[in-house]
Inverse folding.
């Protein structure tokens, strides 16, 4: 069952088409990733979902009914551009945002204290926002987003400015929210975060949806004939080899596309015979980063697939 349906959303700013006829569905009980490069149209899509921007055409459907202003009361929204009042104290601003969503009193204050302790901010609860580091401001903004216990949580580039420890903490809390039945939608250009956290994704490039569906099904489809390789040595001899369709260097790993899936053992033997130290050899495996580069790695706006945007749906 789909909780939220985005149908044919289009938004232009002058001659710029920011979102171009975008459609996708957010299933119940999922972590949903809205992914794409910076400027792809992710934030504009979210703002139309939130009724901040009115679309030129299209609509957003919540459980069968068109979304209205009341949807905002069900949502915890973390915008890409942070909106904290710099002169206010941390505890005051958390209570203020909770009251805006109809939550106040002892229970709300207790929950604020709990989150501040968890994020190691309790000793800064009386500090002004302007006196906090960028990372600590981001943590306060996130607490403000979830403090009123929203049904929907929409996070636009939530990991910006966070160190690895706090990034992991944020991920833990997001997954806890999922366990409670919350619907989490987060936008990011960081494919590794999306791959580790998302059940379903939609990939947007130049305002267009170029891929959508369940992440495990997408990876299974694109992993065919693919080998993810980590190695030491020289693999230049593979260039032009008749069994190789494509080689792509992603830094820590190398993606190798074979012409036939049955050629994986042949490839492994070639590497060993050439004294290449194979640290990892994953047949029929592909990262979301590799899929993203294949589909959206062209600056002219065309995608990397001869058949255009792809869709993988649940059976």
């Amino acid at each position: 069952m789909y909780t939220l349906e985005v149908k044919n959303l289009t938004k232009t700013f002058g001659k710029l088409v920011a979102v171009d006829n975008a459609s996708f569905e957010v299933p119940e009980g999922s972590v949903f990733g809205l992914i794409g490069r910076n400027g792809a149209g992710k934030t504009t899509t979210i703002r139309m979902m939130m009724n901040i921007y009115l679309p030129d055409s299209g609509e957003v459907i919540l459980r069968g009914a068109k979304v209205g202003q009341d949807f905002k009361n069900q949502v915890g929204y973390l915008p890409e551009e942070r909106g904290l009042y710099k002169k206010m104290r941390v505890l005051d601003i958390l209570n203020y945002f909770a009251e805006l969503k109809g939550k106040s009193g002892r229970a709300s204050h207790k929950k604020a204290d709990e989150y501040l302790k968890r994020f190691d901010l309790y000793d800064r609860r009386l500090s002004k926002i302007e006196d906090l580091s960028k990372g600590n401001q981001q943590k306060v903004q996130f607490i403000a987003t979830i403090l009123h216990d929203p049904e929907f949580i929409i996070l636009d580039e939530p990991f910006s400015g966070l160190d690895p420890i706090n990034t992991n903490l944020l991920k833990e809390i997001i997954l806890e929210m999922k366990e409670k039945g919350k619907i989490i939608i987060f936008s990011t250009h960081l494919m590794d975060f999306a791959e580790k956290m998302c059940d379903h994704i939609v990939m947007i490039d130049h305002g267009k949806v170029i891929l959508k569906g369940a992440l495990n099904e997408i990876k299974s489809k694109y992993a065919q004939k693919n080998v993810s390789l980590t190695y030491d040595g020289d693999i230049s001899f593979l260039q032009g080899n008749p069994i190789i369709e494509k080689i792509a260097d992603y830094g820590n790993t190398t993606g190798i596309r074979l012409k036939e899936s049955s050629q994986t053992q042949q490839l492994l033997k070639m590497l060993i015979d050439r004294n290449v130290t194979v640290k990892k050899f994953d047949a029929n495996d592909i990262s979301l980063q590799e899929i993203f580069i294949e589909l959206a790695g062209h600056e002219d706006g065309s995608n990397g697939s001869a058949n255009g945007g792809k869709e993988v749906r649940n059976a």
